[in-house]
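Hi L., both proteins are below.
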Amino acid sequence: MSAGKKAVVFVLFLVFVGFLFYMGGNKLGITGQKKTTDMSGTMLMDLPQAEGFPIFIMFYSNTCAICEKLMPDILNFHKELGNKAYFLLINTDLPETERIVKDFRVEGLPTFFWITTDRKIFDSKVGGWPAKEIHKTILDLIEFSNGKRN
Protein backbone atom coordinates (compact mmCIF):
# COMPACT_ATOMS: atom_id res chain seq x y z
CA MET A 1 0.00 0.00 0.00
CA SER A 2 1.39 3.42 -0.92
CA ALA A 3 2.16 6.04 1.72
CA GLY A 4 -0.73 8.20 0.46
CA LYS A 5 -3.21 5.36 0.78
CA LYS A 6 -1.87 4.55 4.26
CA ALA A 7 -2.38 8.18 5.28
CA VAL A 8 -5.96 8.16 3.97
CA VAL A 9 -6.71 4.87 5.75
CA PHE A 10 -5.20 6.26 8.96
CA VAL A 11 -7.29 9.45 8.79
CA LEU A 12 -10.46 7.46 8.06
CA PHE A 13 -9.66 5.18 10.99
CA LEU A 14 -9.27 8.20 13.31
CA VAL A 15 -12.56 9.66 12.11
CA PHE A 16 -14.28 6.31 12.65
CA VAL A 17 -12.81 5.93 16.16
CA GLY A 18 -13.79 9.50 16.95
CA PHE A 19 -17.31 8.85 15.77
CA LEU A 20 -17.58 5.66 17.82
CA PHE A 21 -16.44 7.20 21.07
CA TYR A 22 -18.50 10.31 20.48
CA MET A 23 -21.74 8.46 19.81
CA GLY A 24 -21.28 6.46 23.02
CA GLY A 25 -19.98 9.36 25.09
CA ASN A 26 -21.49 12.06 27.24
CA LYS A 27 -22.08 15.67 26.25
CA LEU A 28 -19.14 18.01 26.30
CA GLY A 29 -18.67 20.31 29.26
CA ILE A 30 -20.11 23.18 27.21
CA THR A 31 -23.60 24.41 28.00
CA GLY A 32 -25.66 27.34 26.78
CA GLN A 33 -23.52 30.41 26.11
CA LYS A 34 -20.95 29.57 28.77
CA LYS A 35 -17.92 27.66 27.53
CA THR A 36 -15.89 25.82 30.10
CA THR A 37 -12.31 24.73 29.68
CA ASP A 38 -12.85 21.71 31.95
CA MET A 39 -13.33 18.68 29.74
CA SER A 40 -13.42 16.10 32.55
CA GLY A 41 -16.55 13.99 32.62
CA THR A 42 -16.99 14.40 28.86
CA MET A 43 -16.71 12.15 25.86
CA LEU A 44 -12.95 12.69 25.94
CA MET A 45 -12.92 10.61 29.13
CA ASP A 46 -14.47 7.72 27.15
CA LEU A 47 -11.30 7.21 25.11
CA PRO A 48 -9.48 4.38 26.86
CA GLN A 49 -6.66 4.48 24.32
CA ALA A 50 -6.04 8.13 25.25
CA GLU A 51 -5.91 7.44 29.00
CA GLY A 52 -2.97 9.30 30.49
CA PHE A 53 -2.16 11.08 27.22
CA PRO A 54 -2.75 14.67 26.18
CA ILE A 55 -5.01 14.95 23.11
CA PHE A 56 -4.49 16.94 19.93
CA ILE A 57 -7.71 17.50 17.96
CA MET A 58 -7.93 18.87 14.44
CA PHE A 59 -11.29 19.63 12.82
CA TYR A 60 -10.87 19.67 9.05
CA SER A 61 -12.77 19.38 5.78
CA ASN A 62 -11.89 17.69 2.50
CA THR A 63 -12.72 20.98 0.75
CA CYS A 64 -10.46 23.11 2.97
CA ALA A 65 -7.28 24.06 1.10
CA ILE A 66 -5.47 25.02 4.32
CA CYS A 67 -6.44 21.69 5.91
CA GLU A 68 -5.20 19.82 2.86
CA LYS A 69 -1.90 21.70 2.98
CA LEU A 70 -1.41 21.00 6.72
CA MET A 71 -2.47 17.33 6.71
CA PRO A 72 0.93 15.87 5.70
CA ASP A 73 2.58 17.81 8.54
CA ILE A 74 -0.07 16.68 11.03
CA LEU A 75 0.42 13.05 9.96
CA ASN A 76 4.19 13.47 10.37
CA PHE A 77 3.63 14.93 13.85
CA HIS A 78 1.54 11.87 14.67
CA LYS A 79 4.31 9.59 13.43
CA GLU A 80 6.84 11.48 15.58
CA LEU A 81 4.74 12.07 18.71
CA GLY A 82 1.93 9.50 18.57
CA ASN A 83 3.45 7.62 21.49
CA LYS A 84 3.32 10.78 23.65
CA ALA A 85 -0.02 12.33 22.63
CA TYR A 86 -3.31 11.07 21.24
CA PHE A 87 -4.20 12.53 17.83
CA LEU A 88 -7.84 12.90 16.82
CA LEU A 89 -8.70 14.20 13.34
CA ILE A 90 -12.37 14.99 12.81
CA ASN A 91 -13.75 15.43 9.29
CA THR A 92 -16.50 18.04 9.45
CA ASP A 93 -17.84 16.88 6.06
CA LEU A 94 -19.31 13.76 7.64
CA PRO A 95 -22.89 14.07 8.92
CA GLU A 96 -22.08 11.97 11.99
CA THR A 97 -19.60 14.62 13.20
CA GLU A 98 -22.22 17.41 13.20
CA ARG A 99 -22.87 17.20 16.95
CA ILE A 100 -19.22 17.25 18.03
CA VAL A 101 -18.56 20.16 15.66
CA LYS A 102 -21.46 22.05 17.25
CA ASP A 103 -20.43 21.13 20.81
CA PHE A 104 -16.88 22.35 20.22
CA ARG A 105 -18.30 25.48 18.55
CA VAL A 106 -16.19 25.04 15.45
CA GLU A 107 -16.76 28.10 13.28
CA GLY A 108 -13.77 27.99 10.95
CA LEU A 109 -11.41 25.45 9.50
CA PRO A 110 -9.08 24.10 10.42
CA THR A 111 -9.76 24.29 14.16
CA PHE A 112 -7.28 22.87 16.65
CA PHE A 113 -7.63 21.93 20.30
CA TRP A 114 -4.86 20.82 22.62
CA ILE A 115 -6.33 18.98 25.65
CA THR A 116 -4.34 18.14 28.80
CA THR A 117 -4.25 14.74 30.48
CA ASP A 118 -6.74 16.04 33.06
CA ARG A 119 -9.02 17.02 30.13
CA LYS A 120 -8.73 20.79 30.25
CA ILE A 121 -8.21 22.92 27.16
CA PHE A 122 -4.53 23.84 27.01
CA ASP A 123 -4.88 25.91 23.83
CA SER A 124 -7.06 26.29 20.75
CA LYS A 125 -6.59 27.96 17.38
CA VAL A 126 -8.66 28.53 14.25
CA GLY A 127 -7.39 28.96 10.73
CA GLY A 128 -4.11 28.65 8.90
CA TRP A 129 -1.46 28.38 11.58
CA PRO A 130 2.11 27.57 10.59
CA ALA A 131 2.92 23.88 10.97
CA LYS A 132 5.92 24.80 13.16
CA GLU A 133 3.59 26.57 15.62
CA ILE A 134 1.20 23.60 15.72
CA HIS A 135 4.15 21.28 16.35
CA LYS A 136 5.56 23.55 19.07
CA THR A 137 2.19 23.71 20.83
CA ILE A 138 1.90 19.90 20.75
CA LEU A 139 5.39 19.70 22.30
CA ASP A 140 4.42 22.31 24.91
CA LEU A 141 1.27 20.31 25.70
CA ILE A 142 3.30 17.12 26.14
CA GLU A 143 5.83 18.91 28.35
CA PHE A 144 3.05 20.48 30.43
CA SER A 145 1.30 17.13 30.77
CA ASN A 146 4.54 15.38 31.77
CA GLY A 147 5.07 18.04 34.42
CA LYS A 148 1.56 17.34 35.78
CA ARG A 149 2.50 13.64 36.17
CA ASN A 150 5.71 14.38 38.11
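That was the first. Here is the second:
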Amino acid sequence: MLWFQVAIQWLHVLGGIFWFGSTLFVSLIHAPAMMSLPPRTTEPVFRATTKRARVVLETVGAITVLLGIIRGTLLGPVQSVQFLLGTPSAGMLLGLTYQLIRFVADLVLVGTRSNAQLRTEVLALRHPRAQSRQARLAAW
Protein backbone atom coordinates (compact mmCIF):
# COMPACT_ATOMS: atom_id res chain seq x y z
CA MET A 1 0.00 0.00 0.00
CA LEU A 2 2.91 2.36 0.67
CA TRP A 3 4.14 2.19 -2.94
CA PHE A 4 0.63 3.12 -4.11
CA GLN A 5 0.59 6.20 -1.85
CA VAL A 6 4.01 7.26 -3.08
CA ALA A 7 2.98 6.80 -6.72
CA ILE A 8 -0.24 8.81 -6.25
CA GLN A 9 1.67 11.55 -4.38
CA TRP A 10 4.32 11.91 -7.10
CA LEU A 11 1.86 11.76 -9.97
CA HIS A 12 -0.20 14.47 -8.25
CA VAL A 13 2.88 16.67 -7.70
CA LEU A 14 4.17 16.14 -11.26
CA GLY A 15 0.71 16.89 -12.68
CA GLY A 16 0.55 20.12 -10.67
CA ILE A 17 4.02 21.16 -11.80
CA PHE A 18 3.17 20.42 -15.44
CA TRP A 19 -0.18 22.21 -15.23
CA PHE A 20 1.20 25.31 -13.50
CA GLY A 21 4.39 25.38 -15.59
CA SER A 22 2.40 25.17 -18.81
CA THR A 23 0.29 28.10 -17.71
CA LEU A 24 3.41 30.14 -16.96
CA PHE A 25 4.96 29.20 -20.29
CA VAL A 26 1.88 30.24 -22.25
CA SER A 27 1.45 33.50 -20.31
CA LEU A 28 5.06 34.64 -20.15
CA ILE A 29 6.67 33.20 -23.30
CA HIS A 30 4.24 31.87 -25.89
CA ALA A 31 1.62 34.65 -25.87
CA PRO A 32 4.14 37.54 -26.06
CA ALA A 33 6.01 35.75 -28.85
CA MET A 34 2.76 35.26 -30.78
CA MET A 35 1.90 38.93 -30.33
CA SER A 36 5.19 39.95 -31.94
CA LEU A 37 4.52 37.94 -35.14
CA PRO A 38 2.51 39.18 -38.12
CA PRO A 39 -1.14 38.03 -38.16
CA ARG A 40 -0.69 35.72 -41.17
CA THR A 41 2.01 33.83 -39.31
CA THR A 42 0.14 33.82 -36.02
CA GLU A 43 -3.06 32.20 -37.26
CA PRO A 44 -1.79 28.68 -38.13
CA VAL A 45 0.45 28.54 -35.07
CA PHE A 46 -2.39 29.74 -32.84
CA ARG A 47 -4.77 27.13 -34.26
CA ALA A 48 -2.32 24.27 -33.84
CA THR A 49 -1.25 25.18 -30.32
CA THR A 50 -4.71 25.87 -28.92
CA LYS A 51 -6.09 22.61 -30.30
CA ARG A 52 -3.33 20.54 -28.78
CA ALA A 53 -2.90 22.53 -25.56
CA ARG A 54 -6.57 22.35 -24.70
CA VAL A 55 -6.65 18.57 -24.81
CA VAL A 56 -3.39 18.13 -22.90
CA LEU A 57 -4.00 20.76 -20.22
CA GLU A 58 -7.60 19.72 -19.57
CA THR A 59 -6.53 16.10 -19.22
CA VAL A 60 -3.59 16.89 -16.92
CA GLY A 61 -5.75 19.27 -14.88
CA ALA A 62 -8.51 16.69 -14.42
CA ILE A 63 -6.03 13.97 -13.45
CA THR A 64 -4.26 16.29 -10.99
CA VAL A 65 -7.55 17.26 -9.31
CA LEU A 66 -8.69 13.63 -9.19
CA LEU A 67 -5.38 12.48 -7.68
CA GLY A 68 -5.63 15.29 -5.11
CA ILE A 69 -9.07 14.10 -4.08
CA ILE A 70 -7.79 10.51 -3.83
CA ARG A 71 -4.82 11.68 -1.76
CA GLY A 72 -7.07 13.57 0.63
CA THR A 73 -9.84 11.02 1.03
CA LEU A 74 -8.84 7.42 0.31
CA LEU A 75 -5.15 7.76 1.18
CA GLY A 76 -5.26 10.77 3.48
CA PRO A 77 -6.77 12.13 6.65
CA VAL A 78 -10.21 13.03 5.28
CA GLN A 79 -12.41 10.14 6.37
CA SER A 80 -15.61 12.04 7.16
CA VAL A 81 -17.46 15.28 6.44
CA GLN A 82 -16.96 16.30 10.07
CA PHE A 83 -13.20 16.23 9.52
CA LEU A 84 -13.56 18.59 6.58
CA LEU A 85 -15.68 21.02 8.55
CA GLY A 86 -13.28 21.07 11.48
CA THR A 87 -11.20 24.22 11.99
CA PRO A 88 -7.85 23.00 10.63
CA SER A 89 -9.39 21.37 7.56
CA ALA A 90 -11.92 24.03 6.57
CA GLY A 91 -9.27 25.64 4.36
CA MET A 92 -8.77 22.35 2.53
CA LEU A 93 -12.49 22.15 1.84
CA LEU A 94 -12.62 25.76 0.63
CA GLY A 95 -9.56 25.24 -1.58
CA LEU A 96 -11.00 22.08 -3.08
CA THR A 97 -14.35 23.75 -3.70
CA TYR A 98 -12.69 26.76 -5.32
CA GLN A 99 -10.52 24.61 -7.60
CA LEU A 100 -13.44 22.46 -8.72
CA ILE A 101 -15.61 25.50 -9.46
CA ARG A 102 -12.76 27.17 -11.34
CA PHE A 103 -12.00 24.03 -13.33
CA VAL A 104 -15.63 23.59 -14.40
CA ALA A 105 -15.95 27.32 -15.19
CA ASP A 106 -12.83 27.15 -17.37
CA LEU A 107 -14.22 24.18 -19.25
CA VAL A 108 -17.54 25.92 -19.80
CA LEU A 109 -16.20 29.38 -20.68
CA VAL A 110 -13.28 28.32 -22.86
CA GLY A 111 -15.15 25.39 -24.31
CA THR A 112 -17.91 27.61 -25.68
CA ARG A 113 -15.54 29.86 -27.60
CA SER A 114 -14.40 28.75 -31.01
CA ASN A 115 -10.91 29.15 -32.41
CA ALA A 116 -12.21 31.96 -34.64
CA GLN A 117 -13.47 33.89 -31.61
CA LEU A 118 -10.20 33.40 -29.75
CA ARG A 119 -8.21 34.46 -32.82
CA THR A 120 -10.38 37.58 -33.14
CA GLU A 121 -9.68 38.40 -29.49
CA VAL A 122 -5.93 38.08 -30.00
CA LEU A 123 -6.00 40.20 -33.17
CA ALA A 124 -8.15 42.83 -31.48
CA LEU A 125 -5.62 43.15 -28.69
CA ARG A 126 -2.73 43.45 -31.14
CA HIS A 127 -3.98 46.14 -33.49
CA PRO A 128 -4.88 49.66 -32.31
CA ARG A 129 -7.31 50.03 -35.24
CA ALA A 130 -9.32 47.16 -33.85
CA GLN A 131 -10.51 49.06 -30.78
CA SER A 132 -14.14 48.80 -31.90
CA ARG A 133 -13.77 45.02 -32.20
CA GLN A 134 -12.17 44.97 -28.78
CA ALA A 135 -15.14 46.90 -27.34
CA ARG A 136 -17.55 44.43 -28.93
CA LEU A 137 -15.60 41.53 -27.47
CA ALA A 138 -15.64 43.12 -24.03
CA ALA A 139 -19.42 43.37 -24.27
CA TRP A 140 -19.57 39.70 -25.26
